Amino acid sequence: MRGGVSLRYGVLVLLAVMVLVPFAGIVLAALHPSGAQLDGLSIPDRWSWETFALAWERGNFTNLMRSSVLIAVFVVPLAVVMATLAGYGLAVLRVWGHRTLSFAFVMGLTLPIEVIVVALYFNLREVGLTDSYVGVILAEAALFMPFGVYWMQTHFSNVPEELIEAARIDGARDLVVLARVLLPISWPAVTTLSVLYFMWSWNQFMLVLVMMQDPDRRTAPSGLGLFVGQYTTDIPLLAAACLIVIAPIVVVYLVFQRSFVSGITQGAIKG
């Protein structure tokens, strides 16, 4: 028994080291002066915080971060609301054709963005939604639907039917059941889905690169791709730019850590 516990902890420690060591290397590299030559993990002789300011200025991250925040702020609530309503309709209301629709959403999980991005570009161009925040927001919300609907449908399927029936006996209609009965006990699942949507929206690269032709309106990850091409040999500057891009994700995860882990654990136990 003790050997099994020690083995599990050993594996967890090994995985943590495999994740944290490269991250520590990026942080240490970013603290070197711009243009410094690095060889593996090295502690800087002088901590150079100016590298972050220089990366922010040269990478035009003021506009890029604004675009990323704007898109994520609209994508997350829009996609979460639609996924919640669809999951409720399929799992609880069991609308006509719910089995076929559920299968279609599951199949949507296997559809990579690379397959549809070109066709999506031409379709949105016909309605004037390329090089537009609205086009990117709608496209991302639609692309995130398969997982969100599957996630919320699975969650609602595990809610005791007696709870829903009791609310209906009291005269509650469908939307009241969802808003006042199911959502209060579904916040871990909703929060987890929101955090995942934020991470996916923030990290979206190819879709924004294709849809947005104006460099000032692209998001931070897509701007980082161009930044890497310009400053390939300046490792400290590249490391600082990478940390700037991933910082919002780390902050969001730390803020919602308990709800996120609770939602993941709840889904794992119920699944």
UniProtKB/TrEMBL annotation:
Domain ABC transmembrane type-1 span(s) in chain numbering: 65-256
A GO biological process held by the record: transmembrane transport
Membrane topology: Multi-pass membrane protein
Broad class of where this protein is predominantly found: membrane
Transmembrane annotation, as ranges: 12-31, 69-93, 100-121, 133-152, 177-200, 235-256
Location within or outside the cell: Cell membrane
InterPro entries assigned to the protein according to its UniProt record, in alphabetical order: MetI-like, MetI-like_sf
Keyword presence, Membrane: yes
Assigned protein family: Belongs to the binding-protein-dependent transport system permease family.
PANTHER family, alphabetized: ABC TRANSPORTER PERMEASE PROTEIN MG189-RELATED, ABC TRANSPORTER PERMEASE PROTEIN MG189-RELATED-RELATED
Name recorded for this polypeptide: Carbohydrate ABC transporter membrane protein 2 (CUT1 family)
